[in-house]
Amino acid sequence: MNLKIITYMRSNEAFNDNIKKILTLSLKLNTKISCIIFTDNDRKFEFDGIKIDSINFPGTKYIRLLYLFEREQEDCLYLSIDNDINVNDETILKFLEKGLSGKYDIGWGRIYAQSQSGFISNLVATDKHLSHDLIRPLSWKLNMGISIPGQCFFIRPKAFQDKLYQIDTFLDDLAIGAYISNNRKDYSILRSSFLLGYEKPNTNFGGLCRQRKRWAKGFYQIFSYPKRKEYQSKLLLHAAFYHFSWIVNWLMIGYISYCNLYAGMIYILAIALLMTRKDYKLLFYGVIYQLFFPIFHIVWIFNILRGDKNDDNA
Q1: Is the Cβ–Cβ distance between 118 and 205 less than 8 Å?
Q2: How many angstroms separate the CA atoms of 169 and 194, rounded?
Q3: Is 234 within 8 Å of 146 (Cβ atoms)?
Q4: Residue ranges of the Glycosyltransferase 2-like domain (predicted)?
């Protein structure tokens, strides 16, 4: 089976070392490799040993993937990967080998945040642990999963051609995940424990607020889709687990601390240990996360309430 690496670049982004790294690593695989780079202007890219097609097709990642699926002629494997992902050399090759075996229709692993020194970036790193180590794996295990890691996943386009939901949304991870969740008995899914790579986190308050605003817009687009009844309950559970669980945590902190202040402090520390998977470098931020990060969930909730008044270009 041939491998096609799909990535996405804005006009101000360069053909960077992260993409060159995954192209170099993929040459170690015993298969034909090609690359498609979506851009929003006309550009040319070259890389020794790999054919690169540049497609000037502005829009969301999901719409771009649907565009490719509609035109795909061969039974191949796509690796969809964001431009800022620094892949883990050893695990990404093992992950792709599993995909190229032909046993799976779609697969994903874990993505962490690149190590940074800033306050916000370390909170994002903590949030990645919570999402990729706890919420997502547990929800899929309980047959309630609806989200995949959109930063890096493989998919066999022939298995999904003319089947995925026709939604224009910022959240390809939810749009693809919703279809898979509703039709999982028809597909072979690899939910890998491999740490596949690291993404560059938001490093400032404003950037993270804008990201949550885009997420809210994407969620609203998926929730408004005419076929939403097929996945609506799981979508709402996803929102409850990720965007509203802090309310329960705050109530627990308040109640336990009211009964015994020291017990409340121990509870906060225990939750921090659980979230960060005993990554002691992030333990302090695991504590602060519980108290500070709900601000960004409130931003998301506020923009959900705005519905289609939320600005696409935020």
Answers
A1: no
A2: 27
A3: yes
A4: 81-274
Q: Which phi and psi (to 5°) does residue 166 adopt?
A: -90, 75
Strand partners, 77: 3
Owner of token pair 């916000």: 120
User: What letter does residue 47 receive in the DSSP assignment?
Assistant: B
CATH 3.90.550.10 fits 2-306, yes or no: yes
DSSP 71-90: H--S--EEEEE-TT-EE-HH
- pLDDT per residue, tens digit, the chain (314 aa), is 999 999 999 888 888 899 999 999 999 999 999 999 999 988 889 898 899 999 999 999 999 999 999 999 899 999 999 999 999 998 999 999 999 999 999 999 999 999 888 999 999 999 999 999 999 999 999 999 999 999 999 999 999 999 999 999 989 999 999 999 999 999 999 999 999 999 999 899 999 999 999 999 999 999 999 888 889 999 999 999 999 999 999 999 999 999 999 999 999 999 999 999 878 889 999 999 999 999 999 999 999 988 765 555 44
